[in-house]
Amino acid sequence: MLGDFPLKDKIAVITGAGSGINLAFTQLAAFHGAKCIIADLRLTAEAEAYLKTAKNAIFTKCDVTQWSDLQNLVTVSRDEFGDVPDIYVPGAGVFEPKWSNFWDDTETSRYAEIDINISHPIKLARIAIRALLGANKKGVVLMVASVAGLAGNYAAPLYCATKHAIVGFVKSMAAAEMLEGVKVVAICPAIVKTPLWTTRPDMMQQYSVRDDASVSVDDVTQAMLDLIQDGKYGGGTVFKCDIDVKEVVQFNERILPGGERGEEERAEVMDKIHRPIVEMLRGERGTGTGTGTGS
Length: 295
What we know:
alpha/beta; 10 helices
């Protein structure tokens, strides 16, 4: 198991860190000694001002819908910091933008919201595993989900579906910590008053976003820090961060082929299920590259 994983001297790559929660987390991680890569399409004035004085943070332009841009983050890390990242935070996301949502339905070939909110974090997780195994390193992937991934909302069904997908993915990746030394966890914040909302006053009014009903950025980023650093949060942890509730979400289902089984039989079944993946990943360990598509 990974155990405690202090940020000091670790390399962290954070997408969507040009603003909002992800910028705040970058600042907190850097304060704790991490070397940070801010990956985004553009920087807010706040992010630009921060980078002027930051000694251990850099910016690289990244379109998270382009897998080549995501793979390039590993290259940037090697070129700038001499190694692959230890920590991966695919934080970029959108909430029901006019140009990609279920109800307006203006797109003709695909939902960009799905590319940004689902495909990007899942692909970055695969890139992370390949890079970490190639470098014989342990690491953490912290997914930014949402309380919307724990419930439903008729007005925002596509966004909810994307966050449910991330929660399901993180639960599925629980074994990666024990098998490969890569911890995959998720934070599920409630509404946080960031540019995701403040740049859209119509949505703030629709969803009754106000200060006394919003989680603080500091609470969310501290929870993100704890999920990475504290060994008590194992792989597959999904952590809810609301105003009055900050806790690990408990999932009680245990689904296996053939119904309920004893612990010993269950372990045998899971070992058989996992074995092909473990054998495949053995070929990625120690390659020293961390590149490629796996195809």
